Amino acid sequence: MDDVDIVPHEVLASMLMRMFEFAPVAMSITTSDMQTSSYAKVNDAYLRLTGLKWENIRGRKLISEGAAIDSPARNRRHRMLAEEGSYELEEVEIAHVDGTIIPTLISAQRTVVNGVSFDVEILIDVSARVRQQREIENALKASARTDVLSGLPNRACFDEVVAEAVVHMDETEKGWRSPSSISTASRP
Question: Which of 35, 46, 128, 175 could disulfide-link 26, Cβ–Cβ 3.0 to 4.6 Å?
Fold first, then answer.
């Protein structure tokens, strides 16, 4: 059984390519250089996520022409690929074509084919979860600043508003001069 392939290599390659193209999650295959990584292939889900068009990014660099954002975290992930060969579920922000920053989780694996190194990446859009988390945090903050019985702002809200007002006031709005701002020449 080990000597016989159940599925011929050509059929298997075709099946894997169709799985890649029609996968519901964003996937990309890129060259493996930290600063000059270029697109080798992306699927439709990747194009939908980023708003990019394949004809505009084919063979182009991820940072200058694509969705990748250059950062120390990106460099760290590339080092992980070089040293360990893969990473899983790293938090990554990518750029949509309209300038929107999209929070994602990315998993990647480095593969060498005919002496050329490629990175296969899977990206999961978590923007809806992040948005939901922010809404929950805002609701909790509002709840913490409101009296349960009356629905009116409570002491915590008052303290927060006063603290913010003090921080944003400049010296002229305070109506007083600090001792350090009074020169000795103006003293009698």
Answer: 46
**pLDDT for 14 beyond 50:** yes
pLDDT at 186 over 60: no
Neighbouring C-beta atoms of residue 29, cutoff 10 Å: 17
> Tokens 């992930």 identify what position?
77
Q: Is the pTM of this model over 0.70?
A: no
pLDDT tens profile 53-68? 999 999 888 888 777 8
**Residue 86 pLDDT exceeds 90:** yes
Q: Which domains does the chain have, with CATH numbers?
A: 9-125 (3.30.450.20), 130-171 (no CATH)
* DSSP codes of every residue in the chain: -TTS-SS-HHHHHHHHHHHHHH-SSEEEEEE--TTT-BEEEE-HHHHHHH---HHHHTT-BHHHHSS----HHHHHHHHHHHHHSEEEEEEEEEE-TTS-EEEEEEEEEEEEETTEEEEEEEEEE-HHHHHHHHHHHHHHHHHHTB-TTT-SB-HHHHHHHHHHHHHH--HHHHTS--GGGS-GGG--
All residues at 6 or more sequence positions from 60 whose CB lies less than 8 Å from its CB, including other chains: 38, 39, 66
